[in-house]
Amino acid sequence: MTTEIVCILPCNGLDKSLGVITREVSLQVIEKKSDVQLICPVLLNNGDERYETLIQTAKIIIINGCMTRCPTKLIEKRNLKPFKQILIPDMFKKYKVKSAKTLILNEENIKLAELIADEIITDLNKSNQEKDNAIREFQEQEFFDITVDKYYFTVPKDGYFFNENDCWIKPERNTALLGITDYLQNAAADILFVDLPELGCKIEQFGDIGSFESSKTILQLISPGSGKIIAVNKSLEQNPEYLNQDPYRKGWFVEIELDNFEEDKELLMNGSEYFDYMKNKIMKEKNHLDQINDERDV
Amino acid sequence: MSKSYDADKETFMGAPRNKIPWWPTIDYEKCNFCMECDKFCPHNVYAKTDNEKQLLNVKNPYNCVVFCRACAKTCAPDALTFPVKSEISKLIKKLRSQ
Question: What CATH code would you report for A143-297?
Answer without folding.
Answer: 2.40.50.100
